[in-house]
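Methods — Computational structure assignment.
A single polypeptide chain was analysed. Its primary sequence is given first, followed by the predicted tertiary structure written as structure tokens.
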Amino acid sequence: DSANTPEIMPHSFRLTIKNERTGQSSVVAGEIPDVDWNLLLDFLNEVGHLRRGRLVAEGAKVNYEFSWDREKGQQHKATLPPEDDVSAFLHRLRPFVLQRERYFLLKILNVLRRFLPDPQIRSVFDLETDSFFGRDDSGFTITAGELALTSDDTVLKWLNAVEYHRDEDKQHELRAAAEAIPTESQRAIFLSAMIDKAKSILIVAGMVEDLRDRGGKQSVVEGKR
């Protein structure tokens, strides 16, 4: 009976968008249906768990250094946060990086794209999508044989081989790559990629928080990451 069906009320918002590069501002207003709005709020709740983890809260750094000379040959040096912090970070990141998860970042961005058609905002969505998938314009790549360690496909292989699952075939690929780049150094490379994913998640979460506040803040786009 449609008379007994609760009415779905949309969430209204009004945002002022400022382009930091040009100084131009525009106003974006609209409504988001409850089913999508509830997803975005649940996404923010999950991001809260990510933010409270020590690695994110304290801004831990990951360093990888490579050098070569005639006498010593290749030298690799990796500096990683404590193992427990890394494990907690990757666990809290899982809902955002696996495609089948409800809060996979691309799913959240697709919801936002539907209701925020402003070109300036879409440019931020494009930037964070590229950053999340390791497709930025830095041009920095690290390879071991035929395996591109800095590609998103290889990062996912590492997650499935070592962290989230124990895929033996993928473990074999990474062990073969260890002949060129030690496992600890690989871990530093992969963890750096995961930290970049976390940065994109937090930036998108900040935009959702602006929506939640119904335009009480000014959103800045094209600023520094």
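Note: The chain is about 50% helix and 15% strand.
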